[in-house]
From TrEMBL:
<comment type="pathway">
    <text>Carbohydrate degradation; glycolysis; D-glyceraldehyde 3-phosphate from glycerone phosphate: step 1/1.</text>
</comment>
<keyword id="KW-0324">Glycolysis</keyword>
<feature type="binding site">
    <location>
        <position position="162"/>
    </location>
    <ligand>
        <name>substrate</name>
    </ligand>
</feature>
<comment type="subunit">
    <text>Homodimer.</text>
</comment>
<comment type="function">
    <text>Involved in the gluconeogenesis. Catalyzes stereospecifically the conversion of dihydroxyacetone phosphate (DHAP) to D-glyceraldehyde-3-phosphate (G3P).</text>
</comment>
<dbReference type="InterPro" id="IPR035990">
    <property type="entry name" value="TIM_sf"/>
</dbReference>
<dbReference type="InterPro" id="IPR000652">
    <property type="entry name" value="Triosephosphate_isomerase"/>
</dbReference>
<dbReference type="GO" id="GO:0019563">
    <property type="term" value="P:glycerol catabolic process"/>
</dbReference>
<feature type="binding site">
    <location>
        <position position="202"/>
    </location>
    <ligand>
        <name>substrate</name>
    </ligand>
</feature>
<feature type="binding site">
    <location>
        <begin position="223"/>
        <end position="224"/>
    </location>
    <ligand>
        <name>substrate</name>
    </ligand>
</feature>
<dbReference type="GO" id="GO:0004807">
    <property type="term" value="F:triose-phosphate isomerase activity"/>
</dbReference>
<comment type="similarity">
    <text>Belongs to the triosephosphate isomerase family.</text>
</comment>
<protein>
    <recommendedName>
        <fullName>Triosephosphate isomerase</fullName>
        <ecNumber>5.3.1.1</ecNumber>
    </recommendedName>
</protein>
<feature type="active site" description="Electrophile">
    <location>
        <position position="84"/>
    </location>
</feature>
<keyword id="KW-0312">Gluconeogenesis</keyword>
<comment type="pathway">
    <text>Carbohydrate biosynthesis; gluconeogenesis.</text>
</comment>
<dbReference type="GO" id="GO:0005829">
    <property type="term" value="C:cytosol"/>
</dbReference>
Length: 243
């Protein structure tokens, strides 16, 4: 819930031109619903893509306050974040609901970015892998391999979101590898290899290099740093790493 329509438009207009993407990596901005249409217009024809922060699983009807995937598609949105920890913990979204939304987003042809991650007390009790495994298995429930191949996964340890406490590259890599191995078990090695797994949680230009250097970390889901010039800095770092 950051940036009004006007602020988002001003910010993204500045990003275009400052951010150069390559075939190997994409830059997606996910503003609030109120700014989506304008940001889709501004970024149209540029190298920046647009995602929503949530969506509902029904097409239309009496669901006051909800936004359907068709509404998003109609204005040019291509990605949808689902199961963000704030949706799970502040708005009580459970794995079953996230699974329904995920199915809807996939069938609609949009690309879901599925967030998973443990809370601090779960990590301290040694439950990180159990939590992440349950979230992924329940989100994937009933999906074919082809459907599941559309999903981008974002590992976001809840204790690292907005806290300034970033996971160390080794802590993040350990969970990313666990997720990739899990995907191998659910489907196969090829599927696991081709799935994009992002890390999110207090990413800043000064800590991203170490994270992105790890084998199983394919990119970032950036919160606070995506609202400032730091985002341009991060995109430059990505480009340097890839080249
Ligand atoms: O939740 C996040 C992105 O979705 C991460 O937020 P921060 O980068 O502010 O920790």
């Amino acid at each position: 819930m950051n940036k009004t329509n006007t602020e988002a438009a001003e910010f993204v207009s500045k990003l275009i031109g400052q951010i150069r993407t390559e075939d190997k990596f994409e830059v997606i901005v996910c503003p609030p619903f109120t700014a989506l249409e304008k940001i889709c217009d501004i970024t149209s024809g540029s190298n920046i893509k647009v995602g929503a922060q949530n969506a509902f699983y029904e097409d239309k009807g009496a669901y006051t306050g909800e936004i359907s995937v068709n509404m998003l598609k109609d204005i040019g949105v291509e990605y949808v974040i689902l199961g963000h920890s704030e949706r799970r913990h502040i708005f009580q979204e459970n794995d079953e609901l996230i699974n329904k939304k995920l199915k809807k987003v996939i069938v609609s042809g949009l690309t879901p970015i599925l967030c998973v991650g443990e809370k601090l007390e779960e990590r301290e009790k040694g439950l990180t892998f159990n939590v992440v495994e349950k979230q992924i298995k329940e989100a994937f429930y009933g999906l074919t391999q082809e459907e599941a191949s559309k999903i981008i996964i974002a590992y976001e340890p809840v204790w690292a979101i907005g806290t300034g406490k970033v996971a160390t590259p080794n802590q993040a890599q350990e969970v990313h590898k666990f997720i990739r191995d899990l995907l191998k078990n659910i489907f196969n090695e090829e599927f696991a290899k081709n799935t994009t797994i992002l890390y999110g949680g207090s990413i800043k230009p000064n800590n991203y290099l170490g994270l992105f250097g790890k084998t199983d970390i394919d990119g970032g889901l950036v919160g606070g740093a995506s609202l400032t010039e730091d985002f341009v800095e991060l995109a430059k770092i990505m480009k340097e790493i890839i080249e």
